[in-house]
Amino acid sequence: MTATSTQIQLVNRPVGWPTADDFRTVTVEYGDLAPGQVRVVNEFVSVDPYMRGRMIDTRSYIPPFALDATMTGGAVGRVVETTVDELPVGTLVSHQYGWRDVVQEDADGFRALPEPPANAASSVYLGVLGMTGLTAYVGLLTIARMQPGDTVFISGAAGAVGTAAGQIAQLKGAKRVIGSAGTPEKVALLTERYGYDAAFDYKDDRSIREQLRDAAPDGIDVYFDNVGGEHLEAALDSFNDGGRAALCGAIAQYNSTTRTPGPSNMANIITRGLTLTGFTIGHYFDQAPAFRGEMGQWFADGKVVHDETVVDGIENSVDAFLGLMRGENVGKMVVRTGS
Amino acid sequence: MTATSTQIQLVNRPVGWPTADDFRTVTVEYGDLAPGQVRVVNEFVSVDPYMRGRMIDTRSYIPPFALDATMTGGAVGRVVETTVDELPVGTLVSHQYGWRDVVQEDADGFRALPEPPANAASSVYLGVLGMTGLTAYVGLLTIARMQPGDTVFISGAAGAVGTAAGQIAQLKGAKRVIGSAGTPEKVALLTERYGYDAAFDYKDDRSIREQLRDAAPDGIDVYFDNVGGEHLEAALDSFNDGGRAALCGAIAQYNSTTRTPGPSNMANIITRGLTLTGFTIGHYFDQAPAFRGEMGQWFADGKVVHDETVVDGIENSVDAFLGLMRGENVGKMVVRTGS
Asked: Where is the Enoyl reductase (ER) domain (chains A, B) (predicted)?
């Protein structure tokens, strides 16, 4: 049986902020399945900040998106036709064939998932029970080596990784968890919904440095960086001796066309004995089983809140991505492909 | 019996480059020993880059020097009068009562040393067999976790720590050791005397970035930073995935009166999964026994070269320190107090 797939391709490498003209929507017709293939109809596809890095052609940990080809990324869908026993029709799967509503590929590229918990849609596997949650878990516990009693600062705290990281920090016994976000509404959510002890607006007239000092009068021990730039500089000034930073993202710079100077207080790294460690989650998949066990239990017990910002329609994926870049999401940004 | 001591005091907190006017030389008369005290005549006193940080009054890992008081720092001397059995007359001791030729204090402040190896003066305990060598050893092996087969880059490589670090890297099985220094003469010594595989002049017209790329065409795994600034930026550009930096010093900035921007390529820390760790040696004295065992053996076996730049006369200590700041030393800079 044939099928039609709507797919999003990159046609220009954006310089500065991406625009709609950098992408195009194409229709792909799939023929009958070849042996070993499955056809999957996606339920949700992910848009993530790291994808901005794949739109340019530079040395990185992951190859750039090819021009005039369909982009890739996390997605969850359901098998609708199959040639393999391991993935019968109806199986929920996660995979990297995002940016499209229907995909037909070798079964190797798909991983079967359990049905989502009763209180969640399958998109939870793109969020708090998926790569996003794993990133928060590994960044906080393995990279920054958070210990019970630590004071933890998380930037971009209302985003997908930040909302998860703040909750994990509390569940793991942090003394105090502080978050920054870019609107007063998000700031309010941090303390009211995501368990942060203190939060501030980084677009406020007062500097990030000053607001962080007020929020953490006894200093910070751990910094989970999703933003970079001025946030990292403020963290270096607030660190206690032996502090540890997990550098996860630098969204402040992703659309910059100039080289951004680093923090002017790098000397604090020496005098306070700090450690800054960058990471990308692809090197830490060995921790996925531990993460799934612990986070799955927390989620089932209602100890972790999962929020998402849903954009409907695969044809609106680029809008969803650009909205993410502008910080229009609370929690995980996903596209519901439902057709 | 009384004694006269010549001592160097700080009288102004320098802004920018220190000058002779920021210091004064005083004469102190000691009376008879009190119970528990010893009197020591110093043989060598140490001048070290970290002392610049103690001349200003800012939060740091070690309190600032008090104004109008004799400064402190590493020194080795010999007991000339004693009231305690543990430190008989003639004992060689190390201690922190530097910046003076004679000291009289409680015995607690002194640690007995074995006589130096036949091929060395007691100043070796301020250099390769002392704090300097320990700094190189800990920075390379514990902080940067150097492994056999790593390519290692060391900045300020002709200084006290750098000459030791390069030799330790080779003895521990580095694949390739690269150093930078500030004069053609020092660059030549790095490869001819200290076992570096490649070296370059960081004051050359060609950028540090470009010279490092040429010296390490396959990238670097470990960076031992004594300089900071442009060196760190170059290292971030040359790092292989998973690279590790030990940040030990930032002499490029010690006399700067403006805030120096950090590296403009901090994003590499994330995409390449790098770790930057700052340290000050005071937190790692637990490793001194292992260091003394291993380094002592290497030195006794003639596997490690120890060079020093000696300035004669305690009254010339400030000149020695200023010369150190200007990079006039090769190896360890010491003052021979001999009177």
From this structure: 19-335
Q: Residue B190: how many CA atoms within 13 Å on its side-chain side?
A: 30
Q: Is B46 left (phi over 0), alpha (psi -120 to 50) or beta?
A: beta
Minimal CA separation from B254 to chain A, in Å: 9
Cβ contacts of A162 within 8 Å, gap of 6 or more: A136, A154, A155, A156, A179, A181, A224, A226
The pLDDT of residue B271: 92
Quick one: CA dihedral B152, B156, B158, B163, positive or negative?
Answer: negative
In the DSSP assignment, the letter for residue B305 is: -
Say if residues A268 and B262 touch (Cβ distance below 8 Å): no
Closest-CA residue of A relative to B258 is: A264
Helical residues (DSSP H) of chain A, grouped into ranges: 51-54, 131-138, 160-171, 184-192, 208-215, 230-238, 267-271, 288-300, 317-325
CB contact B24 to A (< 8 Å):
no
What is the rounded distance in angstroms from the CA atom of residue A54 to the CA atom of residue A234? 28
- Which residues of B, range 50-109, sit inside 8 Å of A by Cβ? 53, 60-61
DSSP state of A331: B
pLDDT, one tens digit per residue, over B210-238 is 999 999 999 999 999 999 989 999 999 99
Touching check for B263 and chain A: CB below 8 Å?
yes
* Residues paired with residue A77 on neighbouring β-strands, in sequence order: A42, A93
Q: Which string of b and e fits A246-272 if b means at least 16 CB within 10 Å?
A: bbbbbbbbbeeeeebebbebbbbbbbb
Average of per-residue pLDDT across A144-157: 98
Q: What is the pLDDT of residue A288?
A: 95
Nearest to A42 by CA among A99, A102, A118: A102
Q: What is the pLDDT of residue B62?
A: 81
Whether residue A201 is predicted with pLDDT greater than 90 in this model: the reply is yes
- Chain A contact present for B143, CB below 8 A: no
Question: CA end-to-end span of chain A, whole Å?
Answer: 18
- Tens digit of each residue's pLDDT (9 = 90 or more) over B112-162: 999 999 889 999 999 999 999 999 999 999 999 999 999 999 999 999 999
CA gap B265, B181 in Å, rounded: 23
Mean pLDDT by 10 residues, chain B (339 residues): 94 94 96 97 96 86 91 97 97 98 97 92 96 97 98 96 97 98 96 97 96 98 94 97 94 76 92 96 94 95 95 96 92 88
This complex has an ipTM of 0.91
Instruction: Inspect the interface and report whether the beta carbons of B263 and A262 lie closer than 8 Å.
Output: yes
What is the nearest CA distance from A249 to chain B, expressed in angstroms?
Answer: 7
* Residue B292, pLDDT score: 94
Q: Which residues of B touch A241 (CB under 8 A)?
A: 61
CA distance B143 to A275: 10
Q: How far apart are CA B147 and CA A157, in angstroms?
A: 37
Nearest 5°: phi and psi at B201?
Answer: -95, 115
Q: Which domains does chain B have, with CATH numbers?
A: 3-127+307-336 (3.90.180.10), 131-282 (3.40.50.720)
Tell me, what's the pLDDT at A224?
98
Distance, CA of A193 to CA of A305 (rounded, Å): 8
